[in-house]
């Protein structure tokens, strides 16, 4: 298979599979929605993606390497690690429970600012208790079965500006900050 053929297959799976999973994929079907791929619009879609990413550098490195390499007083990190108890979701041996402790120590030492989004469990609250922890009320909306109100945490090393972070059990408001589950 050529790189172009591989890229085409990757794009196809990414757009059509449930939760954009390219491994262990299932067809993501929603009765009321059109398929998420339209070959006639492919050029425009790729052009939009190109324009969005043309000033972006994409790295494929372990988080500790990225944080150390990019940290400075002017750096802002947004971290979206695997959820607690979902560490294996992205493959075995990539991220373990110990990494939450290692990440905490790294973040303690940075010169920049960070926000991390994560699920609300006592273990995370305990490990990150030295930082500012803000609750966000949101909904898992990736599938009908998992569509439920939940609390997520935003962990940061600075005071977050006052924004609408959702209302517990509010069916209407969705801030879409967290759509992951495992
Ligand atoms: C919750 S997902 C982030 C999803 C992402 N924010 C998005 O919207 O697509 C967690 C990500 O952490 C990555 N990851 C897991 N272990 C990692 C590690 N040791 N270093 C860097 N990234 C890691 C996974 O591959 C996955 O993409």
Give the SSE map.
Layout: H1 3-16, H2 42-53, H3 63-70, E1 76-79, H4 97-108, E2 113-119, H5 122-127, E3 132-140, E4 148-156
Parallel strand pairs: 1-2
Antiparallel strand pairs: 2-4, 3-4
Bound molecules: S-adenosylmethionine.
S-adenosylmethionine (SAM) binds at residues 62-63, 80-82, 90, 94-95, 180.
Keywords:
182 residues, alpha+beta, 2 domains, 4 strands, 29% helix, 16% strand, binds S-adenosylmethionine
Oligomer: single chain
* Number of alpha- plus pi-helical segments: 5
Structural class category: alpha+beta
Could you tell me how far the N terminus lies from the C terminus, measured between alpha carbons in angstroms? 32 Å
Note poorly predicted spans: 170-182
The proportion of strand residues reads 15-25%
Average residue-wise pLDDT? 85
Largest sheet: 4 strands, mixed
Output the strand order for the largest sheet: 1-2-4-3
């Amino acid at each position: 298979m050529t790189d172009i053929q591989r890229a085409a297959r990757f794009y196809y799976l990414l757009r059509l599979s449930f939760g954009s999973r390219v491994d262990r994929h299932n067809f993501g079907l929603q009765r009321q929605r059109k398929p998420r791929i339209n070959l006639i619009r492919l050029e425009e879609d790729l052009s939009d993606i190109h324009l969005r990413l043309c000033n972006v550098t994409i790295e494929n490195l372990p988080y500790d390497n990225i944080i150390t390499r990019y940290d400075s007083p002017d750096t802002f990190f947004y971290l979206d690690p695997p959820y607690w108890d979902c560490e294996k979701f992205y493959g075995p041996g990539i991220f373990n429970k110990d990494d939450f402790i290692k990440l905490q120590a790294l973040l303690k030492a940075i010169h920049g600012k960070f926000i991390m989004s994560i699920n609300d469990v006592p273990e995370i609250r305990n490990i990150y208790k030295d930082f500012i922890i803000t609750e966000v009320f949101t909904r898992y909306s990736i599938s009908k079965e998992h569509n439920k109100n939940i609390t997520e945490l935003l962990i940061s090393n600075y005071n977050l500006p006052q924004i609408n972070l959702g209302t517990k059990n509010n069916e209407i408001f969705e801030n879409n900050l967290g759509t992951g589950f495992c």
